Amino acid sequence: MEVSGMSLNAKNLENLHTQMFAEACYSSLTARSRYQGIYTGLLSCRARSCSNSGSTMVKKLLVDVDCGVDDAQAIMLALAAPDVEVLGITCVHGNTTVENVCKNTLRVLKACQRLEIPVFRGASKPILGKTLSAGHFHGHDGLGDAPDPDAPSLEMVQKEGAVAAMIRIVSEHAGEVSLVATAPLTNLALATRMDPTFPQKLKGLYIMGGNTDSRGNTTMCAEFNFAADPEAAYIVLKDFQCPTYIACWEFTCRSKLPWEFCDAWLAQDSDKARFMKRIFQHSIEASSSERSQKEMVDGMGFVSCDSYAMAAAVDDSFVTECERVAVSVELTGSYTRGMMVLDTLDMMKKEHKAFVMKKVDLEKFKALMMAALK
Q1: 179, β-bridge pairs
Q2: In a designed cystine with 139, which of 11, 145, 215, 239 is the match (CB 3.0 to 4.6 A)?
Q3: Distance between CA atoms of 132 and 95, rounded to whole angstroms?
Q4: Residue 267 contacts residue 45 (beta carbons within 8 Å)
């Protein structure tokens, strides 16, 4: 690939990742749907594969979580992935209280022997409306209500607030940081309100949230993370102009793994696998409930929702098909508040369009998940 006025050396190749992703979506694809904006084939070029020097580019991540069990799985996936540096983890309300989220994040880092990674406390409630929780699925504490008498103290949480930390970390590494958001988007919305230049300093934004077929898992038409703060989701999808990749609810369901894989995954002989088995048991049992069966799309199975967004951030070749489309969030509907809206007719005339994930390489996903608990 030729880039005018810039040599393809190791230093600037990493900065070219976003451009290469877009060019791959437009010119290196095997098929394109004229009406739906569907792209199939290799979605991005790995910078390291183009480098003559053979050097490996480290991916810098900032992770925003409401640490339930699938957030824990996503964090562990990132920490086990090669050539990935997690610069910090910011916490927000969602699956449980923000205090529990902070505690849970520290518990996950301890299980991975990575307590040196800073943890920051963020927003305790949404911008507007009532606070939701997902205790019925994740347990009231967010990690399956599994006892942990040796959990790290909350004194290990940084004094700096999450929003200020986000702005600082991204400014210190402008153009290098991918932000992975697996929670309600309150912290991100506040960050762009405090610093309107924040989004443009990101390398990319990876979101687990929203839906594409009006299938709700919290309300009739809304996925949990967007339902928990619709205004924040609206602000982020409107104001963040950086490359944005979204793993929606229906997509994660359709990319589920069989429970047999989950059994083998948890059966690994490691402290991390034993930790995951303890905190995941509540959710496994909840998955067989009548409500969970109604929420699921295309049958039952093991769905680690947040891990799909994380896998896309750590492995450029993980996503094999996406839809490039303008997106927004419904704020006023009696039944549809929090629902993600896809503007397939281009009626909003938005220049910025998100990449909505459609298909992924499930064999690579299995490998990333297995490595997370080794």
Answers
A1: 62, 205
A2: 145
A3: 8
A4: no
Mean pLDDT of 216-224: 95
- Residue 39 has what pLDDT? 63
Judge contact between 292 and 137, C-beta under 8 A.
Answer: yes
Quote the tokens at residue 361.
């390489």
Q: Which pTM value belongs to this model?
A: 0.87
Task: Give the number of C-alpha atoms closer than 13 A to the C-alpha of residue 85, restricted to the C-beta side.
Answer: 10
Per-residue pLDDT tens over the stretch 262-297: 999 999 999 999 999 999 999 999 888 888 888 889
Tell me which residue of 98, 96, 117 sits closest to 108, measured CA to CA.
117
Percent of the chain with pLDDT over 90: 78
Task: Name 38's bridge partners.
Answer: 323
Query: Active-site positions?
Result: 66
3-state helix, strand, coil in the chain (%, to 5): 40, 15, 45
Identity of the amino acid at 177: V
Q: Are strands 319-329 and 38-41 parallel, antiparallel or unpaired?
A: antiparallel
Is the Cα dihedral 208, 211, 212, 216 positive or negative? Answer: positive
Q: Which domains does the chain have, with CATH numbers?
A: 58-372 (3.90.245.10)
Is residue 208 pLDDT above 90, yes or no?
yes
Q: How far apart are CA 316 and CA 250, in angstroms?
A: 21
Higher pLDDT, 12 or 347: 347
Scan for tokens 């988007």, then name that residue.
185
CB 42 within 8 A of CB 72: no
Tell me how far apart the alpha carbons of residues 92 and 100 are, in angstroms, rounded to a whole number. 10
* Collapsed DSSP state (helix, strand, coil) of residue 52: coil
Mean pLDDT score, 330-357 = 96
